[in-house]
Design brief:
This protein is of the alpha/beta class and 309 residues long. The protein has 15 helices and eight strands. The chain is globular, with a radius of gyration of 18 Å.
Amino acid sequence: MLFSMTSTLKRLLSSGLMAAALSAGLLGHASAESASRQYTVQAPDGVVLSVQETGDPQGPPVILVHGLLGSHLSWQEQLSAPELQSMRLISFDLRGHGQSSSPSGPLPYTEGRRWAEDLQAVIQASGAQHPVMVGWSLGAAVISNYLAVHGDTSVGGVVYVGGVIELKEALIVPHPEVYRDMTSTDLRTRLDAERVFLRLCFEQAPDAATFQRLQANAAMASFDMQKSVHRMSVEAASGLQRLRKPMLQIYGERDALVNAKASAERALQLNPSIQTLFYADAGHAPFVEASQRFNKDLATFVRKVQPSR
C-alpha cells in the first residue's frame, strides 16, 4: 500500500494533472518552477534523477541539495527570489525523493558513495563549471561524500545550512519515537510522524499552504530510503579535510533536529577555514525561516568565490 501510494503520487506529478494542481494552488508560488528547464540524469547505478534549472543560464552556477523528505520544492524561497535570478540555480531531487527514482533495498541508501555519484552526475550533465554547492541537512552529508570521493577540483565553493556533519548521537537531537514511526508500516502512523518531523524543521513555521505542500512532498519519499538512510555512510572527515575552496556553514540557533553548535564545532575541527554564521531566531531551515537574510548571505558568498561572473 505504501509503495502504491508513492507510485501514484509520482504519476500524478508527471502527468497532465499537475496543471490542475497548480491552478488549485496545491504547489503554492511556483512561478519560478514553471519557467525552469527540467531534465533527467542517470546515476552510475541506474537511478534516474530529476533536475531543474532556473535563473540566468550564463550566471554563476549554484547547485541546491535538499534534505531528508524534501525535493527541489524545498528551495522555493531561493528559486523564486529576484535577488538570486542572476545566478544559474540548479536543483535536483535526491534518490528516493520527489520525482527521482526510488531503488529498492537498503544498499542504494546506506552506501554514501552512491549519493556522491548522484551529485557528480548532475554536475557533469549540467555542464556547471565550478558551482557553489549548497546542502541542507542531509544534503550536506551528500556533499561531504562527494568531496571525499571527487575532491574540490570541480567546485567553486560550499555552503552547508543546518548541515548534518556526521550521523552521530552527539550531533543529532534525539527524537526516537518520531524516527521509529516514520518507518512504520501503518500508513497513518507514518504520515503523522512525517508531519511531526517537518514541524521540527522550523522554529518559525511557514504559511499553511507551504507546509501542506512540503508535507505532501514528504509522503512521496521512498519507504526503503526512510528505513535505511540513518545508516548512510558519511565521509565528513575525509571530505571536509580535502576541501581547500571557500566554505560557509549556517545554522539556526533554535535547530530542533541537529545540534547546531556541536555540528559547527565538529566541522571546524575538520576544516578550521570554514566561515560560520548562526541565525538567532531560526530553526533547522534558515533558508526558509530567514530567507531574505539567507539569500543575501548566499549571494555575497557566490560573488566572493566567483568574482569574475
